[in-house]
Design brief:
Shape: globular
Distance between the termini: 24 Å
Order of helices and strands: HHEEHEEEHEHEEHHEHHEHHHHHEHHEEH
Strand content: 5-15%
Strand order of the largest sheet: 6-8-7-12-13-11-9-10
Radius of gyration: 21 Å
Number of strands: 13
Helix content: 25-40%
Structural class: alpha+beta
Length: 485
């Protein structure tokens, strides 16, 4: 009997009843890791020497999982999917991973990401493109591409991810699973390779809302090494889910959901928005009030630009330590500055170098107010707009993207103008540090699509409960891919 395509609760029960052992679970996970690697290129490292752990009352004990390769893992290759760290083996483990280890979780691989998390396609990692297991001609999105593909294929019930703009939630949507980014600081970022510190969130990719709550319960906690972390010991996510949502108030944004505002809408977009409106009716049938609200289109259109300016500026600063002298493969050169130039020029992909150039430009003294400071001002306007919504509504519910996973061939890391805000609205969850979860809500052309629920800071339980109530009533729940096409 196979277990890796089941939920955490069911696997834990089987372990406690002696139906299966941690050794057998690891064996199954490793077998599926090699299968998926051959077809979809999801992993940087497969840990064939993974050891079982004792099965305790901890729900995660003895169960395999995957680690996105931008989490530091002591004694295990941790590359950030970049040639600049292709041989980097850290001497310490990220706090979030340490917390999972304390729960008895067993890592069986490190997953591919877009280089240092800077990308939304899963195509820029130094080991190559990650393919979507639902259809290998399509992308997984990014940057948590490998984690999403692995959970979707049933390599294990969950994997860690990081989310700076939508890097957990968009890959989850494209792969038909759940992606949960909790409130900023609930999970320590110590040991997560920094991309944009004010936007970076740790989180989880799973196949159910309850599993997402279980995993984040295991990862979270205040940490003296991360001054932005906060004490959430009295917040019990898993235990608080009861599915009672009667009287909850939700809203959706007209400018993102009205098909009449997309004159060149593809058939996939039309079906996606129709499917979403069906889920609005489902919300109402569960006793929730749902209202349409309007947000200034000009503000929404600024989303992508604000994200690019702020994230690139912070990335330029965060990654200035990648010189080739401290760690990473040292480049050749007759002088130290030539060595460093060669290391960064030859080591980074074109996408990363482009982002560093943008970040350096917007931080120059003559440009800073026009670009960086203005981006911060618009970020504040967006966050305030959403916080005003949270004064009246428990959460904002929206479709994820403009439809199912995009084709790898011919797709670029850019967005069509008329759907840009629809594709990028998940970034608001990072701008405000809001808890945000993506859940699958059906299929278009045999490919999964999803919706997203975002709530106010520290209101994670509410967000999870709404997602759980919806998930429980939908025909499609996060399932594993039966056959890779």
């Amino acid at each position: 009997m196979k277990y890796m395509d089941k939920g955490i609760e069911e696997i834990h029960k089987a372990l406690q009843n002696g139906e299966v052992t941690s050794e057998k679970l690891i064996e199954e996970s490793l077998q599926k890791s090699h299968e998926l690697q051959e077809k979809c290129n999801a992993f940087v490292t497969i840990l064939d020497d993974a050891k079982p752990t004792e099965v305790t009352d901890e729900l995660l004990s003895g169960i395999p999982y995957g680690i996105k390769d931008n989490y530091s893992t002591k004694g295990i290759l941790s590359t950030g999917s970049s040639n600049t760290l292709k041989d980097y083996v850290p001497f310490f483990t990220a706090t979030a991973i340490e917390n999972l280890e304390k729960c008895g979780a067993v890592a069986t691989n490190k997953t591919v990401l877009d280089e240092f998390g800077m990308g939304g396609t899963g195509t820029t990692g130094h080991t190559g493109t990650v393919k979507n297991p639902w259809d290998t001609t399509r992308m997984c999105a990014g940057s948590s591409a490998g984690s999403a593909a692995a959970v979707a294929y049933g390599v294990y019930p969950y994997a860690t991810g990081s989310d700076t703009g939508d890097s957990i939630r968009k890959p989850a949507a494209y792969c038909g699973i759940v992606g949960y980014k909790p409130t900023y600081g609930m999970i320590s970022r110590y040991g997560l390779f920094p991309f944009a510190s004010s936007l970076d969130h740790c989180g989880a990719l799973t196949r159910s809302v309850k599993d997402a709550a279980i995993v984040v319960d295991g990862m979270k906690g205040i940490d003296k090494n991360d001054m932005t972390s906060w004490d959430s010991k009295d917040m019990h996510l898993y235990e608080s889910i009861d599915g009672n949502v009667k009287g909850k108030k939700l809203c959706y944004i007209k400018e993102l959901c009205d098909i009449n505002l997309f004159p060149d809408a593809s058939s996939e977009l039309k079906k996606h928005l129709e499917n979403f409106m069906d889920k609005i009716e489902l919300c109402k049938s569960l006793g929730m009030d749902v209202e349409e609200v309007s947000v200034d289109q000009t503000l929404l259109n600024a989303l992508g630009s604000v994200y690019v300016v702020i994230s690139c500026a912070e990335a330029t600063s965060n990654m200035s330590n990648l010189t080739g002298f401290i760690f990473g493969p040292r480049a050749k050169g007759d002088k130290w500055d030539t060595e460093m130039k060669n290391y960064r020029t030859q080591g980074f992909s074109p996408l990363i170098k482009r982002r560093f150039v943008i970040g350096s430009y917007v931080l120059q003294s003559e440009n800073k107010d026009r670009y960086f400071h203005n981006a911060q001002r618009v970020r504040r306007l967006l966050v305030d707009t959403w916080k005003d919504l949270f004064k009246k509504y428990d959460a904002v519910i929206l479709p994820v993207g403009s439809g199912p996973a995009k084709k790898l061939e011919g797709s670029a890391d850019i967005l069509a103008k008329n759907t840009a805000a629809l594709e990028e609205h998940l970034q608001i969850g990072n701008f405000g540090g809001f808890p945000s979860i993506t859940i699958p809500d059906g299929f278009i052309n045999d490919l999964p699509v999803a919706l997203n629920i975002t709530g106010n800071c520290y209101d994670d339980i509410n967000v999870l409960n709404i997602a759980y109530a919806l998930e429980s009533k939908m025909e499609y729940k996060g399932q594993t891919v039966k056959e890779i096409k």
